[in-house]
Design goal:
Elements: E1 24-32, E2 43-48, E3 54-58, E4 64-71, E5 73-80, E6 87-93, E7 98-104, E8 131-135, H1 136-141, H2 152-155, E9 161-164, E10 167-170, E11 177-180, E12 183-184, E13 203-209, E14 224-229, E15 238-246, E16 251-260, E17 264-275, E18 291-305, E19 308-322, E20 336-352, E21 356-372, E22 379-400, E23 403-424, E24 432-437, E25 440-453, E26 458-470, E27 474-487, E28 494-504, E29 522-523, E30 528-541, E31 544-563, E32 570-588, E33 596-617, E34 627-629, E35 636-646, E36 650-659, E37 674-685, E38 689-696, E39 704-708, E40 713-716, E41 721-731
Parallel strand pairs: 1-7, 11-14
Antiparallel strand pairs: 1-4, 2-3, 2-5, 5-6, 8-13, 9-10, 11-12, 13-14, 15-16, 15-41, 16-17, 17-18, 18-19, 19-20, 20-21, 21-22, 22-23, 23-24, 23-25, 25-26, 26-27, 27-28, 28-30, 29-33, 30-31, 31-32, 32-33, 33-34, 33-35, 35-36, 36-37, 37-38, 38-41, 39-40
């Protein structure tokens, strides 16, 4: 029997009930002179460090200034006033943060300029959440990270994030929330999609949260990814052509264009790729593994008034995958996976007086996955699912004194159209007659939360999320979330602690076919319920950032997936209990001597399950009594590397990934440890041309990555891949 686990790298599993988490923050501050008197009418400018996105304001009579609706990212705030030296601070703004700055102006001297760099500004001293921000420059410089099917922008920078059986895992699970410019793109499916949600080249900033989420951020426990897409504000009637060619006839090409005025901006891209090395292979030899796809992305922003912004974000894509085989186990077959994914998200942001922000965002999402077996398969499988999601989310943010309050409501309905069948051509009688089901479900979620700055060094965070799910079953959940952040005076170290509960709505899957064997019955899927606690410490030191965290997640009805009999059709299931715990650490350096940057992400964790199947396919049996290791359990995971700017406009980027080994079969033993190395060399020719040579796994270290008997099948790590990329920018 050949069992191939399909879901892969670029699949972005989205929360069924994830609320739209605002990716906007605010920046405020106080300006005074050497005698601590408020300075009036100082000109304050907020500018992105990666584009020409700017906002300006003047300080009021109390010397205060404020910027609302600021997207997450890196910014430089400049204060100018006649008679005083110009000052600047740089900050990293994270979602929902109210960054509060302090400028003490000095009397101007001849040709004097003062630049203030607050080492604490790169972190959020008020958040209980473990988070990091990855910029467009980091994505472009990380080897392989800007390829369409790559998630290296996450696995290279986020502790506890790794790829196994073609699927992103983080903190021991794979249910994560993706938010594009603050609006969710919901997809409740598990183990059916293998294609990318969008292209990494369309990202401006990516904020990763991996624990301690507020009530606003939905219920997908294992990771929350807030994406700020390219908007056009970073371009002036500019276009960029990216084309590449490499090993396995791999090509990844994109044409993008964008422009803006003071009130209007647009950005659009068209991307195409093809390769002879698509999915991870069950043996070292690569056979029947082509992949190809075409996608388009667009963004339009219109600042109707200083208080009203309208944004439309849309994407369409289609993908085709061959399913690789083991030639020793079967003849050359041609199983394929065809997919479609389209979404339209619209947002209206209204900034009212006195720090009130209202967001209204309707959305629509269509997702399809069609797995089709070859007519010559011994076991011919077919699974065709199309899902329609339509709904919207409304949020209210109020900043008053020490309070930063958020409330919101999200609702969406889902309609699935599913067909599955299994034909046993061997004559053994394992057929499952074709069956089509059209299930419906709806999700309503309400959240309330407040961030209270009790003192200059203590911030308290608390909230409540209420969720109702109505489908084949009906469930309700009330989930509290509380946390605290302590900023140690003078040191600026930030201690944080968090406790919260989550409810993850189930995939919309029903199986009632009477042809299933007695030991392959399908129980209704109930939602996953999680209880998480964690604590951590962030240390800023001379513009370096060191972060450590300890977490523990207890789970009831843990979501995973299993194969239907001897077919290649995978359905979700729930295991009675799971326990995931570990330590994490990350290090990020400043731009050392304007030449080099260093990063490190390390995780030591345990991912265990216990009990029998409580929903989904019931032909799965726990390998042992008590707790057992899950198939994606890996004790130690390390990613580290550097980006180096060399003379003559040459860059060198290096990354190494180490894993101690995933579970060996049913365990408890694990596979041997493994290490791979990635390298990229780039050269710029003027402002418009650049070449980049990338070598992934350049030592060509081939090894078995995992061999799960229950969920994933066997997969080998990809061989060495070498490619050359050309970028050309031009005006139109």
């Amino acid at each position: 029997m050949l069992t191939i686990r399909i879901p892969l790298a670029a699949v972005l599993l989205l929360a069924a009930g994830s609320a739209s988490a605002t990716i906007f923050g605010s920046v405020s501050g106080l300006i005074h002179d050497p005698q601590h008197r408020p300075v009036q009418d100082a000109q304050v400018t907020l500018r992105s460090t990666t584009s020409d996105w700017t906002k300006s304001a003047a300080s009021d009579n109390s010397g205060e200034f404020h910027f609302d609706s600021v997207p997450l990212g890196n910014y430089r705030i400049t204060v100018e006033l006649v008679g005083f030296a110009t000052q600047a601070q740089e900050i990293t703004l994270t979602s929902g943060r109210d960054a509060r700055l302090h400028f003490s102006l000095t009397i101007a001297q001849t040709t004097e300029t003062v630049e203030v760099k607050d080492t604490a500004a790169a972190i959020n001293p008020e958040s209980s959440t473990t988070q990091s921000v990855i910029s467009r420059q980091q994505i472009a410089s990380t080897p392989g990270a800007d390829q369409t099917n790559s998630l290296a922008m996450i696995t290279d920078y986020v502790p506890g994030a790794y790829m196994v059986h073609d699927l992103l895992h983080i903190r021991g699970g794979h249910q994560v929330s993706w938010l594009l410019d603050g609006v969710p793109v919901p997809n409740t499916s598990i183990a059916s999609n293998v294609g990318p949600q969008f292209d990494p080249k369309d990202i401006d900033y990516l904020e990763v949260q991996r624990g301690g989420y507020s009530a606003e951020y939905g219920d997908r426990t294992y990771g929350v990814f807030n994406v700020v897409t390219r908007s056009g504000f970073e371009r002036n009637r500019q276009a960029e052509l990216v084309t590449s060619y490499g090993s396995f006839n791999n090509t990844n090409d994109q044409i993008s264009f964008g422009d803006h005025t003071e009130r209007f901006a647009y950005y659009g891209s068209l991307t195409g790729y093809r390769t002879d090395l698509g999915l991870e292979t069950p043996v070292p030899r690569i056979i029947n593994d082509q992949a190809a796809g075409l996608s388009g992305f667009g963004s339009i922003i219109f600042n109707k008034t200083p208080a009203d912004q309208l944004r439309l974000t849309t994407s369409v894509r289609g993908d085709h995958y061959q399913v690789p085989i083991d030639p020793a186990a079967s003849e050359i077959l041609h199983d394929v996976e065809n997919e479609r994914d389209d979404f339209v998200n619209f947002s209206w942001l209204h900034t009212a007086t006195n720090g009130v922000l209202i967001t209204v965002s309707p959305f629509y999402h269509f997702n399809r996955a069609h797995y089709s077996g070859s007519p010559k398969d011994a076991i011919r499988s077919e699974y065709d699912r199309g899902s329609n999601f339509i709904g919207g989310v409304t949020t209210l943010g109020v900043t008053r004194g020490r309070h930063n309050f958020h409330a919101g409501f999200q609702v969406f309905s889902e309609r699935d159209n599913q067909l599955y069948s299994v034909v046993d051509n061997s004559g053994a009688g394992g057929n499952v007659a074709p069956q089509r089901t059209i299930p419906w479900a709806s999700v309503e979620a309400v959240f309330l939360e407040d961030q209270f700055k009790a003192t200059s060094w203590l911030t308290l965070n608390g909230g409540l999320r209420l969720t109702h799910y109505g489908g084949s079953i009906s469930e309700n959940a009330a989930d509290p979330r509380i946390g605290a952040a302590i900023q140690i005076p003078r040191l600026n170290w930030v201690l944080r602690a968090f406790y919260g509960r989550y409810y993850q709505t189930p995939p919309l899957v029903t199986v009632t076919n009477p042809a299933l064997n007695a030991d392959q019955s399908f129980l209704p899927l109930h939602g996953e319920r999680d209880e998480q606690r964690e604590f951590g410490l962030t240390i800023p030191f001379k513009s370096w950032t060191f972060d450590i965290a300890n977490f523990r997640t207890g789970v009831r009805n843990f979501f995973d997936h299993d194969v239907l009999g001897d077919s290649d059709v995978f359905f979700p299931l729930t295991i009675a209990h799971a326990r995931i715990r570990g330590w994490e650490a990350s290090v990020n350096s400043p731009n050392i001597a304007s030449r080099a940057k260093f990063h490190l992400a390390y995780s030591h964790q345990y991912a265990q399950g216990a009990g029998a199947v409580t929903g989904g396919l019931t032909d799965f049996s726990p390998p042992e009594q008590g707790y057992f290791f899950l198939d994606h359990d890996q004790r130690d995971t390390l990613s580290t590397g550097f980006n180096l700017q060399l003379p003559w406009r040459v860059s060198a980027d290096f990354n190494t990934n180490y894993g101690s080994g995933f579970l060996d079969g049913d365990g408890p033993a694990h596979l041997p440890s493994h290490t791979t190395f990635d390298l990229a060399l780039g050269k710029s020719f003027g402002e418009n041309w650049s070449l980049r040579l990338t070598a992934l796994n350049f030592t060509n270290h081939r090894f078995m990555l995992d061999n799960s008997n229950t969920f994933g099948g066997t997969h080998f790590v990809n061989p060495r891949e070498i490619s050359i990329q050309l970028r050309y920018g031009f005006h139109y």
